[in-house]
């Protein structure tokens, strides 16, 4: 088994020094087509034991199909899937060491909560008394013991979510697959549930693969965030990597708070490129790009300032169209010379310096700019 | 004075309600008439006014003469209908499951299945009888008639099951698969209990459509007749209130069967009620 490739990536989490880090899941270039539509196009991924992985992307990007391939609900046309080092590409779902939580929870409507939760153990042919005891224990730990005899139809959304989670976790699978697991919950519940799930994951050490289109979920939960678009992985890395160093224009524009520019390299000197865009000419760190090549880069909204000094070598003049106030952040939306929007965040609850309608000079340092170096598309 | 739209809509509701009641009366009065006339006295005719009131014709039905003994045809028809119901259940669930998988040629399969509803019964029965003669197969109520009846009842069961699966959330099955249940276990533990109301409906279709089927039985049954054939034969010979008695008896039995099924269904629905979010 290949053990070298992944040692360089990720955070230095507590790994036993003697054993090589164990992979819970490895995807080797999986591909899935439906007729003419390619849902997953060569996705490769390595997930270490106990990682919290978020597959993030817009709807139709292939994240759910990828998850369903891991579950065995879809069989990839091409490529391999290894769970715990064992090749399972052709194995049915019931022979894989996984459990799955569905967006609308998919509880068995004709069974009581206790029966739902005990189903996985029943399938393992455990003795009845043992199942009953374990179900009681699990129901208690998920604080749903009082619901044991109720049918799913009479439960609230939050209760159903707990039942679904208890049902999936009771067999202590190697990997828990979660398909938009809090998408069906009331907005007010989501933050609490997210925290609970994160704590549960840390306590149990079970690998979570969480599919979502919500970047707040992905960045606040994931140890590893995998951004997908058009059936491919655009970028994978720690949340900070993706937020601070987006690899493609897609990632930069998908992630909140980035201002994306596209242009042509016209000059290169001292590790800086001068890029000519429709919104002006800007300096961007980089050296590998040839003069005349098309590039994209981005600058985060919080790295822009209206109090420009001499080190703010990148500047543009724009009119503020609207200001959104979030308490700790004041976000200004400007209209760029090329017609796109420019977001500029002013932190702290200070008095507003710029009002809607005002024209201002905005600037940022070249080193606050990120050149997109990932292979787009 | 202008009437408010709520009031007008109420009035329309009343008119439609009255029409509905009239339609139901139109549907049920003939059966009620037959029921009443079956209790005519021993000298009773077959129309109103009734000549006395008695159970004479029910006794007559029970103590059958050689010429018109309805008990063997009744038994045959019941067995035949039960067999059709079972066959319809098994085949229609399988066919509808196959349709979920969207196989090659599934729409052709769909229309071919429905052909059984479209094709005129007399032609189907007659054609089938000719084919059996060509093949040298002896006609009998429990072989040839059974096959023809299933070709009639199956499409109804099939449509019922298609409608049931159309509303079925297959993620519930997928959840079972990911929890370690094989396909067959998933079907037994999850799918079947959830589609059971539809399955019973398909079975009821199978039973009732076969039980009173005449045109498809006419040429395919051979010497031992089914109940509708026997009743028609009796009508040809002599019309007595005994025919009414048998009609009433079978109607009552059918009603009891339907009531039992629906109440079972209702009880089940109550216990599995599932609010979709």
What can you see in these coordinates?
Chain A has 377 residues and is of the alpha+beta class. Chain A folds into 2 domains: 23-244, Rossmann fold, CATH 3.40.50; 249-371, RNA polymerase II/Efflux pump adaptor protein, barrel-sandwich hybrid domain (OB fold (Dihydrolipoamide Acetyltransferase, E2P)), CATH 2.40.50. Chain A contains 8 helices and 19 strands. Chain A has helices at 63-71, 113-123, 128-141, 157-169, 187-204, 215-221, 239-244, 249-254; strands spanning 23-34, 37-48, 52-56, 78-83, 86-87, 98-101, 175-179, 207-212, 224-229, 232-237, 258-269, 272-277, 280-285, 294-300, 314-325, 329-335, 341-347, 359-364, 369-371. Chain A has a 6-stranded mixed sheet with strand order 6-7-8-3-9-10, sandwiched between helices. In chain A, a hairpin with a 2-residue loop joins strand 12 (272-277) and strand 13 (280-285). The longest helix of chain A is centred in the middle third of the chain and has 18 residues, at 187-204. The model of chain A is unreliable at 1-16 (pLDDT under 50). Chain B is an all-alpha fold. Chain B has a domain at 68-239: MetI-like fold (Orthogonal Bundle). Helices cover 74% and strands 0% of the residues of chain B. Chain B contains 11 helices and no strands. The model of chain B has no long low-confidence stretch (mean pLDDT 87). Chain A binds chain B through residues 71-73, 92-94, 96, 98-100, 102, 104, 106-110, 119-120, 123-124, 151-154, 157, 160, 167-168, 171, 177, 184, and chain B through 169, 171-172, 174-183, 185, 190, 193-194, 271-277.
């Amino acid at each position: 088994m290949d053990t070298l490739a992944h040692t360089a990536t990720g955070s230095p989490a507590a790994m036993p020094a003697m054993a090589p880090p164990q992979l819970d899941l490895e995807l080797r270039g999986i591909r899935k087509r439906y007729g003419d539509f390619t849902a997953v196009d060569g996705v490769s991924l390595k997930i270490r034991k106990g990682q919290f992985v978020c597959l993030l992307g817009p709807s139709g990007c292939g994240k759910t199909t990828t998850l369903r391939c891991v579950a065995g609900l879809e069989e990839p046309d091409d490529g391999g899937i290894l769970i715990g080092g064992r090749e399972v590409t052709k194995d049915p779902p019931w022979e894989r060491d996984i459990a799955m939580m569905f967006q609308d929870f998919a509880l068995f409507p004709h069974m009581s909560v206790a029966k739902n939760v005990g189903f996985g153990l029943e399938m393992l042919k455990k003795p009845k008394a043992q199942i009953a005891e374990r179900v009681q224990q699990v129901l208690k730990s998920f604080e749903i013991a009082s619901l044991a005899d109720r049918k799913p139809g009479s439960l609230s959304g939050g209760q159903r979510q707990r039942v679904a989670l208890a049902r999936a976790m009771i067999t202590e699978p190697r990997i828990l697959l979660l398909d938009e697991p809090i998408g069906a919950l009331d907005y007010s519940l989501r933050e609490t549930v997210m925290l609970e799930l994160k704590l549960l994951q840390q306590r149990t050490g079970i690998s979570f693969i969480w599919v979502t289109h919500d970047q707040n979920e992905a960045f606040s939960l994931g140890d590893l965030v995998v951004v997908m678009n058009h059936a491919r992985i655009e970028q994978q890395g720690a949340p900070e990597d993706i937020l601070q160093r987006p690899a493609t224009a897609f990632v930069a524009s998908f992630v909140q708070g980035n201002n994306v520019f596209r242009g042509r390299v016209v000059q290169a000197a001292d590790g800086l490129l001068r890029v000519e865009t429709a919104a002006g000419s800007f300096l961007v760190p980089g050296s590998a790009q040839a003069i005349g090549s098309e590039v994209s880069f981005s600058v985060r909204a919080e790295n822009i300032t209206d109090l420009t000094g001499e080190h703010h070598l990148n500047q543009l003049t724009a009119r503020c169209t609207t200001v959104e106030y979030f308490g700790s952040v004041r976000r200004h939306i400007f209209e760029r010379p090329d017609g796109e929007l420019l977001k500029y965040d002013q932190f702290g609850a200070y008095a507003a310096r710029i009002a809607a309608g005002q024209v201002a000079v905005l600037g940022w340092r070249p080193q606050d700019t990120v050149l997109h170096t990932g292979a787009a598309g | 004075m202008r009437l408010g739209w709520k009031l007008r809509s109420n009035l329309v509701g009343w008119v439609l309600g009255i029409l509905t009641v009239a339609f139901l009366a139109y549907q049920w009065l003939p059966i009620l008439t037959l029921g009443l006339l079956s209790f005519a006295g021993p000298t009773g005719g077959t129309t109103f006014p009734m000549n006395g009131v008695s159970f004479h014709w029910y006794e007559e039905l029970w103590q059958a003469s050689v010429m018109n003994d309805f008990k063997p045809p009744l038994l045959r028809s019941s067995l035949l209908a039960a067999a059709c119901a079972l066959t319809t259940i098994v085949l229609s669930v399988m066919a509808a499951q196959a349709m979920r998988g969207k196989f090659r040629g599934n729409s052709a399969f769909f229309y071919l299945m429905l052909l059984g509803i479209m094709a005129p019964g007399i032609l189907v029965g007659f054609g089938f009888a000719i084919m059996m003669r060509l093949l040298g197969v002896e006609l009998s109520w429990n072989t040839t008639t059974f096959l023809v009846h299933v070709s009639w009842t199956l499409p109804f069961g099939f449509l019922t099951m298609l409608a049931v699966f159309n509303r079925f959330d297959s993620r519930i099955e997928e959840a079972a698969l990911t929890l370690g249940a094989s396909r067959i276990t998933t079907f037994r533990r999850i799918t079947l209990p959830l589609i059971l109301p539809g399955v019973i409906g398909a079975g009821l279709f199978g039973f009732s459509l076969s039980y009173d089927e005449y045109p498809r039985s006419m040429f395919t049954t051979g010497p031992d007749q089914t109940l509708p054939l026997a009743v028609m034969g009796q009508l040809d010979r002599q019309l007595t209130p005994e025919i009414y008695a048998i009609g009433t008896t079978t109607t009552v039995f059918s009603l009891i069967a339907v009531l039992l099924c629906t109440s079972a269904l209702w009880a089940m629905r109550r216990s599995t009620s599932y609010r979709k979010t």
